[in-house]
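can u pls check wat happens w/ S-adenosylmethionine
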Amino acid sequence: MQSIKVLLLAALAALGSAALAQDTGYSNRGLNLEGIGKAYMGREIAYVMGYEGAAWLEREARAKEEGTEALLPLLNLKPTDAVADIGAGTGYFSFRLAPLVPQGKVYAEDIQKEMVDVINGRKAKGEGKNVVAVLGGITDPKLPPGSIDLVLMVDVYHEFSYPREMGQAIVRALKPGGRVALVEYRGEDPKVPIKELHKMTEAQARKEMAAVGLQWVSTDSKSLPIQHLMIFAKPN
Ligand SMILES: C[S@@+](CC[C@H](N)C(=O)[O-])C[C@H]1O[C@@H](n2cnc3c(N)ncnc32)[C@H](O)[C@@H]1O
């Protein structure tokens, strides 16, 4: 009798954790050295690039390797737009976006204080008067609710340790009809010279954005040399 009880309890516990994984999309995933040992909707989450890599973000070859200048006009910004560069790092994109929204602003957000310090250091030298540095948290970028026209995430989403919570917080921060521009190394292409967990496929990105209520608008896999540019929108 006692052993039946134990078996029943074990079965209930297993059912409970399966239901939890189904609800949240999270599950444990074995040790990939590039990963944090946790998966979301079947995708293993990559570790966060440390602030020690800041110089790599600003490397001279980046413009050619990633076509960074080509990205900016593809975002179709209006001069009054409020943009949030989430996972801004050193502000590589924030300070390039700032002149495109002279009557708007750019929130340059990151979870690493050292990165936010770099952004504030650049501002102190006179760069990007309309750039606002924000120290966010791992589940919440701490942006004003209903205020953002465009969220840009370049090479960052796959590092979120809580992608569902971040996605929900991003939706809260967007205006109705506001857009998300998700730029990720193309996971379908084995020739893209980036570690597996730091790439994403279009199918996976669309699945994860849909899970937080974002509608797919377009995917451009040709304009940038090695990345997808995927646009999603918050419904009106
Ligand atoms: C590879 S860097 C890319 C930086 C920048 N987007 C660029 O393209 O130059 C990824 C950045 O995302 C940040 N990051 C990781 N998880 C984050 C989260 N949950 N919220 C905000 N930033 C995050 C990291 O601290 C790091 O600065």
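The first strand starts at residue 26 and ends at 28.
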